Amino acid sequence: MTSTLGTPVFSDSPARDLVCRGCGTHFPLAAQHACFECFGPLEVGYDAAALASVTREQIERGPKNIWRYAGLLPTGADPASRVTLNPGFTPLVRADALAATVGLRAPLYVKDDSANPTHSFKDRVVSVALTAARALGFERYACASTGNLANSVAAHAARVGAPSVVFIPFDLEQGKVVTTAVYGGDLVAVEGSYDDVNRLCSELTETDEFEKTAFVNVNVRPFYAEGSKTLGFEVAEQLGWRIPAQVVIPMASGELLTKIDKAFTELVETGLVEAPADGWKVFGAQSAGCNPIAVALHGDTDVITPVKPTGIAKSLNIGDPAAGIYALEAVRRTGGWMDYADDDEIRDAIRLLARTTGIFAETAGGVTVAVLQKLVDAGRLDPDAETVVFNTGEGLKTLDAVAEQVGPTYRVRPSLRAVREAGLLD
Ligand SMILES: *Cc1c(COP(=O)(O)O)cnc(C)c1O
Ligand SMILES: [Zn+2]
């Protein structure tokens, strides 16, 4: 928890301090992630006046990536200070055919974060975390990962020529292992679950050997988490500076969900976006194999009982979700809901999304679209309110999920007659 490393050296960042999400105690900006008073998680606090000075025009003049929102992030304005693949500004795809299929009458959009440099939303959080980490004096980059974070940390480290060491559960999809290992850093397959990996990484941050190692989602987690806000900022800007009525978001630790909600709140507080008359509703999606946050909501409790994750949605398999109670709070406060989908529903939803939008999602995207359907069926989502669903990862990394369901629809010899006989010309 303590660090001999310095405070970040961004003179032009709007970040002011770190604030405990549990008891509200303030701490100076540093490589600290837990409260000394109550051990609660810390979040970046901002200078309200600095945030309020950011204008739409400034943002619109900025680069077509997350750094157009630099004035709303805990890092500085100097591009040379960044450890980044310049992710973001991914497509917001209008999905009329999907809307019709699931039973929505109002516009539906898919925010497609598979278009990021390493093909998941994790490039956003890693760019912000590692930029802060370098400014804090860290020299090696690391993470505990369910797959996509591993890809992104290894690629970011390679881009700036820094050493990396990435920890994953040993049973990840090959598509996530290869796309991490190829960047050449150390890749440690741990014989345990993600929650075991995370615990190990927390212990490693306390050792002298890892003193100069930034674990993006452990010892610099407050900075990491802020990167997720850019998904919320982008959606609002791409809708013409409006906040959608309903958003459906996949949950692993639950952090992404809380930060999209935080982004919308900040946009309203800074005056960049007008507060929608009816607010916005936040919906969370998990898989049946790892559903501790949704089960707590359904049981009307704040007690999140950790689970041992199973199932194909491995990128979401965090059995003891660090931001779970904050995700519950955001969903309850906004009047949203959560649900979960089993492996067959996830596979069907991957194919549904693909054939109605041309977007091939990884299993997490299947989870989100399957839950979208359930929320409409159960009457939780208003079919007449504008909705955005988030596809956070790329289908090519989890090919096995649907490999047995799809394939060639015909097989023919290379002759016109064979094609005719197969019925293709009918
Ligand atoms: C990490 C991840 C998420 C969600 O992450 P949180 O821990 O809830 O912030 C969602 N989708 C994909 C594909 C991911 O890799
Ligand atoms: Zn505290």
From TrEMBL:
Its EC number is 4.2.3.1. InterPro entries: Ser/Thr_Dehydratase, Thr_synthase-like, TrpB-like_PALP, TrpB-like_PALP_sf. The keyword Zinc does not apply. The modification N6-(pyridoxal phosphate)lysine is found at K122. It is an enzyme of class 4 (lyase). Residues 84-393 form the Tryptophan synthase beta chain-like PALP domain. Keywords: Lyase, Pyridoxal phosphate. Signal peptide: none annotated. GO terms for biological process: isoleucine biosynthetic process; L-serine catabolic process; L-threonine catabolic process; threonine biosynthetic process. Pfam families: PALP. Coiled coil: none annotated. The keyword Manganese does not apply. Belongs to the threonine synthase family. PANTHER family: L-THREONINE DEHYDRATASE CATABOLIC TDCB, THREONINE DEHYDRATASE, MITOCHONDRIAL-RELATED. This is Threonine synthase. It comes from Virgisporangium aurantiacum.
